[in-house]
Amino acid sequence: MPSPRYWREVPARYRLEGARCRECEKVVFPRRRVCPACRGNHLEPMRLSRSGRVVTSTVVHVAPTDLGMEAPYPVAVIETHEGARLMAQVTDCEPSEVKPGLEVSLEFRRIRREGHSGILCYGYKAVPSR
Amino acid sequence: MREVAIVGTGMTRFGELWESSLRDLFAEAALAAIEDAGVDHLDSIYVGNMSAGRFVGQEHLGPLMADQIGMAGVAATRVESACASGGVALRTAFLEVASGASDLVLASGVEKMTDGADVTDVLATAADQELEAYQGITFPGLYAMIARAHMEAHGTTEEDLARVTIKNHHHGALNPKAQFRREFTLAQVLGSAMVAEPLRLLHCSPVSDGAAAVLVCPLELARHYTDRPVKIIGSGLATAPMALADRRDPAALDAVKRSAERAYEMAESDPGKIQVAEVHDCFSISEICCTEELGLVERGRGGQAVQSGETALGGRLPVNTSGGLKSKGHPVGATGIAQAIEIYQQLRGEAGDRQVPDAHCGLTQNMGGSGASSVVHIFERA
Question: Which of B264, B271, B306, B280 is nearest to B371 (CA)?
Answer without folding.
Answer: B280
